[in-house]
Design goal:
The chain is α/β, with parallel strands linked by helices and 256 residues long. It is built from six helices and 15 strands. The strands form two sheets. A ten-stranded mixed sheet has the order 5-4-3-2-6-7-8-15-10-13, with helices on both faces. It has a five-stranded mixed sheet with strand order 1-9-14-11-12, with no helix packed on it. The C terminus is likely disordered. This is Oidioi.mRNA.OKI2018_I69.chr1.g3033.t1.cds.
């Protein structure tokens, strides 16, 4: 297995600053899902760069009906087949950078993600994507993009779909701090054929090969505030976002 070591805290953007935020078309951000709604408000306030991909602008517009001109992104990009010209013109008048990207060989998500990573290469990216009822082919396409981007860029990309956070782990050793109170059930799914995986800190640790159709890990649980995952291939790490304890607790700080 690779010797390179990565250390991160997946839910860090919810409790800290210094990251970019990308809103996709179909994101279900509303008061019907209070956990996602309150998390979005924290992410919006704490992010340093904000970007909407195509119909993601519709999401922000609907949210802005209650608080006019609050959710104004730095940039909107896409082929604009899911957003009206009138809305684009309105946000352009606000001073928003409008970037039309008509190339049909890549999705609006991939094009927007590349743009963000090229503009703000030093910061991780937090993506809010389609809800749980979105089309499966769209969801698989998003995972495909996550894997593709992870092979080309160093900055971490976190994808929040409804209340499930995804992150593609490259081959190497990963130390993940899961100590914010938002972490629930955990999943590990190989997306690069067969992966040899070794974990510590989970209720059901893995030590051996994993492959879709043979062995994946779902509904796993952490037994430590820090877990380690060593893999020799690309691995999709998922963690459920849960409501943190009502009693305010400071997150531990790991020397990573």
């Amino acid at each position: 297995m690779e010797n390179e070591i990565y250390a991160e805290q997946p839910f860090a953007p919810v409790i800290s600053k210094g990251f970019s935020l990308l809103i996709l078309n179909g994101s279900k951000i509303n008061k019907q899902n209070l956990l996602l709604y309150s998390t979005f408000q924290k992410l919006w306030t704490q992010s340093s760069y904000r970007h909407a991909a195509d119909g993601g602008l519709n999401v922000l517009y609907e949210l802005d009906k209650e608080s006019p001109s609050v959710f104004i992104p730095h940039c909107v990009s896409g082929d604009f087949d899911s957003v009206s010209k009138e809305l684009i013109d309105e946000y352009q008048a606000y001073g928003v950078d409008i970037q039309e990207t008509p190339d049909q060989n890549s999705t609006d998500f991939e094009k927007a993600l590349r743009m963000i990573l090229e503009r703000v290469p030093e910061d991780p990216v937090f993506v809010i994507g389609t809800g749980a009822k979105g089309r499966l082919d769209h969801q698989m396409s998003q995972i495909h993009t996550m894997v593709k981007i992870s092979n080309e860029f160093q900055s971490p990309v976190y994808f929040l779909r409804d209340t499930s956070l995804m992150r593609v782990l490259k081959k190497g050793a990963h130390r993940l701090a899961l100590n914010t109170g938002y972490e629930g059930k955990i999943g590990l799914i190989p997306v690069d054929g067969e992966c040899n995986v070794r974990t510590t800190g989970l209720k059901w640790n893995i030590d051996g090969p994993m492959r879709v159709g043979e062995l994946i890990s779902s509904s796993n649980e952490k037994v430590s505030d820090e877990i380690e995952i060593i893999t020799d291939g690309s691995l999709l790490f998922t963690v459920e976002m849960v409501e943190p304890p009502s009693v305010c607790c400071k997150s531990k700080v790991f020397d990573i």
